[in-house]
């Protein structure tokens, strides 16, 4: 090691230092995120309407844009203590490899069995469902991270968990499916004959391998058509970003413990759950004028919702059964190139992140996937951790920034959100290693097709 | 939580508290483990002979049975700081589920990318190879944990890494293979045409899917037939147990930090690397009469080397090219039932563990695999972590012991070695969940076949 190591490799908080409150960045926002709309009436969803789909306490959290701090119930904090605090790691080895004066830190959320940050919200949603006396929850999963996290959370609270898994993933990712089954979840390949909408789709498209939009529709139908069940979602919603704020809260406490002032915070953006959670506390300071930290979201060039999308009301699901959200979107009909590996394929962006971006508080970078995997492997070889393709978007930009520091001599403190591990994404790594990965950037014409499907909303 | 929680969920050591020395239990042993023998002359292997296969510094460690403490070089400690200290976790949720007065702790080694404790020795072996100025190392891997760990370690020290992977695993576990490739290793399915012995086997058995014994033979041949290469091994050897002693050293420091006196330490036994590493420090105290801790090794009933094996000199590999070791063994020709899932399939046991067992210092339990998977799932559902099948052997016995405490009212402090995660073992979980897993215990007659192949050694 060439640098002096006053800062440990890993900063852990003690249990006493762990956050007792979620940070609700909406309380700081001058322009609040726009309300969800009823897809039939196009009127703002009331608490009552939302409560037919979501748990009551979660509806309150969804609508609460005034309280900055929302207490984390003790039962949830007890669960967090099993896998949190996640470490804030100083990337000494990467810094040495890059020979940069920059100080790079990463908040590592991959150290739990679900392999990602998704568990932070899953346990909160399972807790509120249990507290409401529900029998179970339903959800959909594509790649399987969210479904795994929810299965673990439901198992802990002895709650039934029904996961609609996109059929192609169900068949191609049997390991993910079996992790969920190990945690007691009922996993159904979607489309299925267990719902009206599933049967309709199977009738119209007998050979279909499913889509996330269809799985969402089945999960929602399955929840609202029974007593004792509600639907839960792993990203996009305000409540999810609220739960994920524990990432940023812990990061801030860890940095403060060693007197480190971050100059730049970098996170990957899919639906916005990780990114929103990572930045909330820091964004609050920035809005209040207490900090001038740069906040950078990184998205794939193949699915550029922030950098090339429209800020408009849109459907959250391709099946168009969920409420409408105002967000940066490529249109609910936009489907990223099948070449695109890993996550970050969602057509829209969480309303909170969208509004912050519209307010000029967030910078956005879009990167192509082969350079992302190149950065991922460079990182893995010196830092040990095999990052998820999603997380590697942030790593790529952090390396770029560290190389700029090498030119300018700046000792910037750069903080990355490392959302998860790539253990279940080896097919993508394999494609890269075999030279079979191609980059893809949609043309303006292709984006127009997605925009054409945007609903007409006049508020 | 019903119990008072004076002890945190996870005990982490600070960097200052991390071990600076490996613990060499051989210094405490009244009867030293028997020396390795040259397979041709049946004479004890000299340092010079061993140095043709292994790195010089590792040969010294292999032969050193007098120094109790062996310093961990700073370069290795720097690497350890990336993923160590591993947490000592208090299993509060499992205790509550079992309603037991026992206090259960587990030392969790699965939190690094290789997914197991194997990395502890891989980094040491890679370091000494680099220090000797070697170009690279060769090894074999079956399921892939050791190969992954070694790839990570070699990548860190910029050392070439060549892994002979049993062909059936190479084909059935492409993800493991690609993790190794991500870390820059050259992975060759074994048997291959790159070695004399590989070509011979391919000629005699054109359709073979390989075996660990054959892969070892290829890796050894590949190392000794070139300048600048040595062979490295992930278990069984004294040097490997020495490196793994960091597990027990950290565990002891963590327990001492909170004034906890362990009553029972439970680990799973395959080749003995995890078990030997977990117990070394505690065994030293026990031999010196400073503690009366019970030390329990758990092995699968399908591969019962300690409980039903013979204590005799045997070949370490089925190819019979490696030195002979005196150990509890089922015979190098013994092959566990193909029904047996996960690791712990090795026919012998490390000479150190074998001698300690022969001295009456270790208890052994053997368990059947369906009860192991039942315990694994029970554990996963309350503690979050999805344990490797190997580790779950220890969990099974810990649960049994905790249930005994429930009857007697004893507040025993039970410490488990949780060696790794089960992410790459989902096929075995799947079999269990689908009710397709069967138990198997070899008959005495079947064991005789293995014993019949033992070499005649008269020392």
Give an overview of the whole structure.
The structure is a homodimer of 459-residue chains. Chain A has a seven-stranded mixed β-sheet with strand order 1-4-5-15-10-11-14, sandwiched between helices. The first copy, chain A, has a four-stranded parallel β-sheet with strand order 8-7-6-9, with helices on both faces. Chain A has a two-stranded antiparallel ribbon with strand order 2-3. In chain A, helix 2 (56-63) crosses helix 11 (238-257) and helix 4 packs across helix 15. With 459 residues, the first copy, chain A, is α/β, with parallel strands linked by helices. Chain A has 18 helices and 15 strands. Chain A has helices at residues 47-51, 56-63, 74-83, 92-98, 119-131, 145-157, 167-172, 174-182, 196-204, 212-224, 238-257, 273-287, 305-308, 351-358, 369-383, 389-408, 426-433, 444-452, and strands spanning 10-11, 21-23, 69-71, 88-90, 103-108, 136-141, 160-166, 186-190, 229-231, 264-268, 294-300, 310-315, 324-329, 363-367, 413-418. Chain A is globular. Chain A binds chain B through residues 1, 8-10, 12, 14-15, 78, 81-83, 89, 93, 111-113, 115, 152, 155-156, 174-175, 178-179, 181-184, 377, 380-386, 421, 423-424, 426-427, 429-430, 433, and chain B through 1, 8-10, 12, 14-15, 78, 81-83, 89, 93, 111-113, 115, 152, 155-156, 174-175, 178-179, 181-184, 377, 380-386, 421, 423-424, 426-427, 429-430, 433.
């Amino acid at each position: 090691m060439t640098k002096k190591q006053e800062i440990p490799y890993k900063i852990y908080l003690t249990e006493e230092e762990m956050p007792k409150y979620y940070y609700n960045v909406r309380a700081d926002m001058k322009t609040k995120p726009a309300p969800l709309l009823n897809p039939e009436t196009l009127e703002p969803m009331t608490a009552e309407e939302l409560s037919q789909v979501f748990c009551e306490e979660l509806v309150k959290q969804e609508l609460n844009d005034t309280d900055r701090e929302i207490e984390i119930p003790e039962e949830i904090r007890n669960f967090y203590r099993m896998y949190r605090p996640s470490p804030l790691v100083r990337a000494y080895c990467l810094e040495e490899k890059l020979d940069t004066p920059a100080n790079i830190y990463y908040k590592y959320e991959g150290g739990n069995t679900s392999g990602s940050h998704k568990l932070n919200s899953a346990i909160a949603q399972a807790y509120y469902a249990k507290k409401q006396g529900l029998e179970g929850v339903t959800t959909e999963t594509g790649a399987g991270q969210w479904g795994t996290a929810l299965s673990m959370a439901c198992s802990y609270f002895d709650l039934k968990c029904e996961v609609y898994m996109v059929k192609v993933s169900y068949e191609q990712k049997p390991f993910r499916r079996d992790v969920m089954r190990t945690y007691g979840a009922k996993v159904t390949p979607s489309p299925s004959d267990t719902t009206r909408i599933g049967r309709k789709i199977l009738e119209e498209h007998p050979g279909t391998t499913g889509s996330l939009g269809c799985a969402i529709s089945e999960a929602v139908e399955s929840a609202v058509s029974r007593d004792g069940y509600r639907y839960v979602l792993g990203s996009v919603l305000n409540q999810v970003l609220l739960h994920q704020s524990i990432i940023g809260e812990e990061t801030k406490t860890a940095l403060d413990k060693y007197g480190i002032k971050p100059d730049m915070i970098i996170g990957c953006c899919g639906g916005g759950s990780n990114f929103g959670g990572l930045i909330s506390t820091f964004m609050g300071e920035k809005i209040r004028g207490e900090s001038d930290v740069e906040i950078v979201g990184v998205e794939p060039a193949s699915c550029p919702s922030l950098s090339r999308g429209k800020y408009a009301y849109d459907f959250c699901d391709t099946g168009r059964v969920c409420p409408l959200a105002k967000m940066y979107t490529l249109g609910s009909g936009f489907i990223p190139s099948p070449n695109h590996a890993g996550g970050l394929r969602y057509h829209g962006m969480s309303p909170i992140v969208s509004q912050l971006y519209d307010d000029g508080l967030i910078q956005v970078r879009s990167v192509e996937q082969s350079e992302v995997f190149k950065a991922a492997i460079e990182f893995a070889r010196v830092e040990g951790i095999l990052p998820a393709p999603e997380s590697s978007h942030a790593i790529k930009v952090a390396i770029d920034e560290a190389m700029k520091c090498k030119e300018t001599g700046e000792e910037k403190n750069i903080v990355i959100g490392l959302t998860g591990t790539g253990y279940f994404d080896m097919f993508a790594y394999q494609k890269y290693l075999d030279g079979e990965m191609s980059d893809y950037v949609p043309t303006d014409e292709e984006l127009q097709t997605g925009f054409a499907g945007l609903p007409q909303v006049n508020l």
